[in-house]
Amino acid sequence: MSDLIFYTNPQSRGRIVRWMLEEVGADYETVVIDYASGMKSDAYRAINPMGKVPAIVHRSRTVTECAAICAYLADAFPDAGLAPATEDRADYYRWLFFAAGPLEAAATERARGIVVTPEQSRMVGYGSFDTVIDALEHAVSGRTYIAGDRFTAADVYVGSHIMWGSQFGWLPKRPAFDAYMARLAERPAYIRGGEKDDALMAEVKA
Questions:
Q1: Which domains are assigned to the chain?
Q2: Is 0.90 topped by the overall pTM?
Q3: How far apart are CA 3 and CA 34, in angstroms?
Q4: What is the pLDDT of residue 122?
């Protein structure tokens, strides 16, 4: 058994972690958890009480939540160079957790048809959807990657949100987003990860 186990479903945010695993070049075992019963089973809830994927278990340490998994893997496999030096992590942390907080919340509420009124914006952590999108555009403008000139784990996480937002139509089209996505889509690890999940999806549906 591998010392790194990846619990996922190809129709989930597990695709983010798959991409990250391919970037770090780690050997890992994939365990597919089905939506019908597996995610809510006692066995899987012992790993993630939320009954959600993805999750990883690395040398008996369990990590859930995509942003946390990406950050953890960058630190656990330093030779991959996916985390900046400690003193250079301001933008790395800022935008990684921006995507996990304001962006995720704003996108979810937009998908549910919830519109924050100006009066509500002060009590809502992300303010408004338009404010979040403007901040995201600012984050990817005038730089090659989210934390500067070097690709990091934050690009895996932020980039996945931008790609999904473009694919599913909740992200407004802006040139800065298109240019950023084009750079990320060329990465061999992104391509490999997508191919593996697409193949897995075909198996799950068979």
A1: 4-81 (3.40.30.10), 86-189 (1.20.1050.10)
A2: yes
A3: 22
A4: 87
Segment-wise mean pLDDT, segments of 10 residues, the chain, 206 residues: 93 97 97 92 96 97 98 98 97 98 95 89 91 97 95 98 96 97 98 96 72
Could you give the CA distance from residue 11 to residue 48 in angstroms, rounded to a whole number?
18
Report strand pairing: 29-32 vs 4-8: parallel
Buried b or exposed e, range 84-110, using 16+ CB within 10 angstroms: beeeebebbeebbbbbbebbbebbeeb
Cβ proximity of 110 and 165 under 8 Å: no
Structure tokens at 74: 């960058």
Distances (CA, A) of 20 to 52, 175, 191: 18, 25, 11
